[in-house]
Write a structure and sequence with these properties.
- By secondary structure, this protein is of the alpha/beta class.
- Helices cover about 50% and strands about 15% of the residues.
- It contains 17 helices and 14 strands.
- The protein has a five-stranded parallel sheet with strand order 2-3-1-8-9, with helices on both faces. It has a five-stranded parallel sheet with strand order 11-10-12-13-14, sandwiched between helices. Strands 4-5 form a two-stranded antiparallel ribbon.
- Strand 6 and strand 7 form a beta hairpin.
- It starts with a strand and ends with a helix.
Length: about 450
């Protein structure tokens, strides 16, 4: 298996702020440990038994050094386009000609860029010629059934069948603009170069180009948020599990001071992860980072639990730092962030098989309802957990299944009763979904 893992600089694929191992590195380390343990116990069922990655940028620098070229990370993007193209071709040639690439129990992750936003213009990060060779060889080695091919009306023309996910696919790692900028500021190459608006645009360009390349070859493309558990990426590689987008009314619950219900939604997501791939919208924290500059300490204490505050400090570095960053955002940039959040969440739904909605409040959430409508009208199943018998007909209309109090059962009246109902409803839905998938 081959995974092409794109993402902008600073997205945390290989290294974190402070120099720790990034998402891909941690996924490989933890995944290798899990494979080894489950193989010892006789429980490993995936054909993938080994994981590795190539850092294509580092490979280009190494081969430049081998050729006697004076090239540094800080200056490589200033090279002539022809020289960059040659280095990229050398690196891709080495990867494509690696015989281990085709071993059936090995997954190779090519960590690269789709593009760079450098000095006001785009620079390609991929060589389409060598990508084509990679895909053609993968398609040759993992032929799809004849029935999967599409017959064109014109005689003699036949479209190539899709490459199955177990053969090759794309992922793009995304993260909040604040966290990306924080990592970039630790880099001599990028320090002080990009404003938040440029990072928003670059990340959108990275996603868009990756999606287009995947669509051209008719292979899957997935967004993976940096702050998702590494299990999400690991499961996409190793298992054909159904994919779930977990929706819940984040802003409303915070305004109501119900941070514990947000924790409950995310804990429910963890339970779902035992059987499914789950995408959590709160894994990208653009809206949070932008909002911290406008809320005071009292609101912060009210809206976030102690566990959530500790998590915030872990990714923000300090509350003062993220507040200072938020104060630099003008109205246009805040609007860009909000729109990027909407588009990203809808894309997460697009790459999912179903939308599970954890909705423990009677207050209307325009975001959750919009997500339900998008999922419903794009052919996804939509399940909603809701602690009240009286539900808006608009929410019910877009739901495949609804978990509400049974006839004769009183609506929960206290936060503890709401939490108890949501836990029971979650158990029931989880049992139903796993039975369907068995």
């Amino acid at each position: 298996m081959i995974v092409i893992a794109t993402g902008v600089s600073g997205s945390g694929r290989l290294s974190e702020a402070g120099g720790g191992p990034g998402h891909v590195v941690r996924m490989i380390e933890e995944g290798a440990a899990r494979i080894e343990q489950e193989q010892r116990e006789g429980r490993w069922t995936s054909p993938i038994k080994r994981l590795r990655y190539f850092d294509m940028g580092r490979l280009m620098l190494d081969r430049a050094r081998d050729l006697g070229m004076v090239v540094r990370t800080e200056t490589i993007l200033d090279m002539a386009p022809e020289a960059l193209h040659e280095l990229r071709a050398i690196a891709f040639t080495e990867v494509v000609n690696d015989p281990a690439l085709w071993e059936p129990d090995l997954c190779t992750i090519l960590v690269t860029h789709a593009c760079f936003w450098w000095k006001g213009h785009l620079i390609p990060g991929l060589d389409t010629h060598y990508l084509k060779l990679l895909f053609d060889e993968t398609r040759r080695r993992t032929p799809s059934p004849e029935a999967a091919a599409v017959q064109e009306p014109l005689p003699g023309l036949r479209l190539a069948p899709p490459v199955q996910p177990e053969g090759i696919f794309y992922v793009t790692m995304v993260d909040s603009v604040y966290q990306i900028q924080r990592r970039l500021e630790e880099s001599e190459q990028w320090r002080g170069r990009l404003r938040p608006g440029e990072i928003i645009a670059w990340q959108e360009q990275e996603v868009f180009i990756s999606k287009m390349l995947a669509a051209y070859e008719r292979v899957p493309h997935f967004l993976i948020a940096h702050d998702e558990p590494v299990q999400t990426f690991f499961d996409l590689i190793c298992f054909k599990r159904p994919r779930i987008y977990l929706g819940y009314p984040i802003t409303n619950l915070r305004r109501e001071g119900q941070a514990q219900l947000i924790e409950m939604a995310r804990e429910f997501g963890q339970r779902l992860r035992e059987h499914f791939v789950v995408f959590d919208p709160l894994s990208v924290k653009d809206e949070e980072a932008a909002a911290f500059s406008t809320i005071g300490d009292a609101e912060f204490e009210q809206q976030f639990s102690s566990e959530q505050r500790a998590e915030i400090l872990a990714w923000a570095g300090s509350l003062d730092a993220v507040r200072s960053w938020g104060r630099t955002l003008d109205d246009h940039t805040r609007l860009q962030l909000a729109r990027a959040t909407v588009v990203r969440d809808l894309r997460l739904i697009d790459q999912s098989d179903m939308n599970v909605v954890f909705y423990p409040t009677s207050q209307m959430s325009f975001g959750v309802l919009s997500e339900m409508i998008h999922a419903h009208t794009t052919g996804k199943k939509v399940y909603i957990l809701y602690p009240h018998k009286s539900m808006s007909p608009f929410m019910e209309f877009y739901a495949t299944g609804v978990c509400t109090p049974a006839p004769g059962e009183d609506d929960p009246a206290t936060p503890d009763e709401v939490a108890a109902f949501m836990h029971r409803a979650g158990d029931a839905l989880l049992a139903e979904l796993t039975a369907e998938g068995s």
